[in-house]
């Protein structure tokens, strides 16, 4: 191999691919990045049997070859190189990286022992990169982080024609987001449960591209792979087995009270009041016409009270929430005005952005949050 590539281009490509490498690889070769130079292109690939990543960049290729080198070491080296073109060449079992006056020599890993990357499934449809990234970030916050319950660590992707619905839950809240996309076939129908962390990392990395292509293999949850491609990058990941609870019946459609509050003052008030909320203790919200009172703490310890303006339709309501869950929902609604809808103080509340005047209900993003029962 003998190639020449721009430093910034190489550093970004190596850093992105190396992010998905396992911290404790089951076999040594999985700690490697596969570099393949051919036809004026350098391709970098990583794989850990669950997630595969591949990116292609332009390069001046004098000699074509494929080599496997330590991914994290190469990423550290590329990050520290001066802003000069980088030359990479091979001689026997060594790879030499030269940039300006800097010169590094790395040992190669055995390419023949590296597993074949999974094939990208056939494209199912495309969505603008920014829309996809925003939707995933809104929903992934509600996914569980307990690996003993793997189903809850996933984001459910449901495709029906030109509509994609993302959903996740950790049993304490449920986030759902719908968006339109361009399916390859108008009658496309599929369901997949994708690891939330992988999906979030992938969506962020592809947000710079004009569009993201989704590719599903298998027709049911837990079958096969899902692939994402955009901006010269490609990721595949195995799907989780199982499915989320039937969530549509959990979302109430009729409410006894609806409160409307400016999001920014609401967020700041929750943050301040939560300072005295000890671990796992809630923030109490009391809604009356024209005012919301927030309280936290107890008479035996520090206490905080704050009031903010709020419009209330319906009955007065007092309810308590985990402040972290409430703040994550408020940050995800992406609206200057938040709307909280209640059936009672002991049942889940629906959080969303206030819909536009000509829309009765804003269904694009919904965040259902369980209240915390107060003793006494």
UniProtKB/TrEMBL annotation:
<feature type="domain" description="DNA polymerase III beta sliding clamp N-terminal">
    <location>
        <begin position="1"/>
        <end position="118"/>
    </location>
</feature>
<dbReference type="InterPro" id="IPR001001">
    <property type="entry name" value="DNA_polIII_beta"/>
</dbReference>
<feature type="domain" description="DNA polymerase III beta sliding clamp C-terminal">
    <location>
        <begin position="248"/>
        <end position="363"/>
    </location>
</feature>
<keyword id="KW-0963">Cytoplasm</keyword>
<dbReference type="InterPro" id="IPR022635">
    <property type="entry name" value="DNA_polIII_beta_C"/>
</dbReference>
<comment type="subunit">
    <text>Forms a ring-shaped head-to-tail homodimer around DNA which binds and tethers DNA polymerases and other proteins to the DNA. The DNA replisome complex has a single clamp-loading complex (3 tau and 1 each of delta, delta', psi and chi subunits) which binds 3 Pol III cores (1 core on the leading strand and 2 on the lagging strand) each with a beta sliding clamp dimer. Additional proteins in the replisome are other copies of gamma, psi and chi, Ssb, DNA helicase and RNA primase.</text>
</comment>
<dbReference type="GO" id="GO:0005737">
    <property type="term" value="C:cytoplasm"/>
</dbReference>
<dbReference type="Pfam" id="PF02768">
    <property type="entry name" value="DNA_pol3_beta_3"/>
</dbReference>
<comment type="function">
    <text>Confers DNA tethering and processivity to DNA polymerases and other proteins. Acts as a clamp, forming a ring around DNA (a reaction catalyzed by the clamp-loading complex) which diffuses in an ATP-independent manner freely and bidirectionally along dsDNA. Initially characterized for its ability to contact the catalytic subunit of DNA polymerase III (Pol III), a complex, multichain enzyme responsible for most of the replicative synthesis in bacteria; Pol III exhibits 3'-5' exonuclease proofreading activity.</text>
</comment>
<protein>
    <recommendedName>
        <fullName>Beta sliding clamp</fullName>
    </recommendedName>
</protein>
<dbReference type="GO" id="GO:0006271">
    <property type="term" value="P:DNA strand elongation involved in DNA replication"/>
</dbReference>
<dbReference type="Pfam" id="PF00712">
    <property type="entry name" value="DNA_pol3_beta"/>
</dbReference>
<keyword id="KW-0239">DNA-directed DNA polymerase</keyword>
<comment type="similarity">
    <text>Belongs to the beta sliding clamp family.</text>
</comment>
<feature type="domain" description="DNA polymerase III beta sliding clamp central">
    <location>
        <begin position="127"/>
        <end position="246"/>
    </location>
</feature>
<dbReference type="GO" id="GO:0003887">
    <property type="term" value="F:DNA-directed DNA polymerase activity"/>
</dbReference>
<keyword id="KW-0808">Transferase</keyword>
<dbReference type="Pfam" id="PF02767">
    <property type="entry name" value="DNA_pol3_beta_2"/>
</dbReference>
<dbReference type="GO" id="GO:0003677">
    <property type="term" value="F:DNA binding"/>
</dbReference>
<keyword id="KW-0238">DNA-binding</keyword>
<keyword id="KW-0235">DNA replication</keyword>
<dbReference type="InterPro" id="IPR022637">
    <property type="entry name" value="DNA_polIII_beta_cen"/>
</dbReference>
<dbReference type="GO" id="GO:0009360">
    <property type="term" value="C:DNA polymerase III complex"/>
</dbReference>
<dbReference type="GO" id="GO:0008408">
    <property type="term" value="F:3'-5' exonuclease activity"/>
</dbReference>
<dbReference type="InterPro" id="IPR022634">
    <property type="entry name" value="DNA_polIII_beta_N"/>
</dbReference>
<dbReference type="GO" id="GO:0042802">
    <property type="term" value="F:identical protein binding"/>
</dbReference>
<dbReference type="InterPro" id="IPR046938">
    <property type="entry name" value="DNA_clamp_sf"/>
</dbReference>
<keyword id="KW-0548">Nucleotidyltransferase</keyword>
